[in-house]
Amino acid sequence: MRNVLHIFRSRDKRTLRKISIPVQYLYVLLAGRDRALCLTESQLYTRMLAKVAHYNQLRTEQPS
Question: Is the Cβ–Cβ distance between 11 and 26 less than 8 Å?
Fold first, then answer.
C-alpha cells in the first residue's frame, strides 16, 4: 500500500513530526473537496439567477 509522507514543524520550530497518510484517504479528501466546490458554485449560480429574475421583473414593472 502506498503512503504519502507529510512532515510538519511544531510551533516552536524545534521538532519535526512525520505523518504517513494512505493514498486512498487522500482520494477521499480530494473528492470531498471537489464536491464542496461544486455545491458552492451551484449555490452562487442559483443566487445570481434569482437576482437577475428579480431585476428583470423590476424592469418590466417600470412605466415607460
Answer: no
Amino acid at 64: S
What digits encode the pLDDT tens for the residues 28-57? 989 999 999 999 999 999 999 999 999 999
C-alpha–C-alpha distance, residues 51 and 62, integer Å: 17
End-to-end CA distance of the chain: 71
Buried b (16+ CB within 10 A) or exposed e, 31-51: eeeeeeeeeeeeeeeeeeeee
Neighbouring C-alpha atoms within 13 Å toward the C-beta of 33? 6
Cell numbers given for 17: 513530526
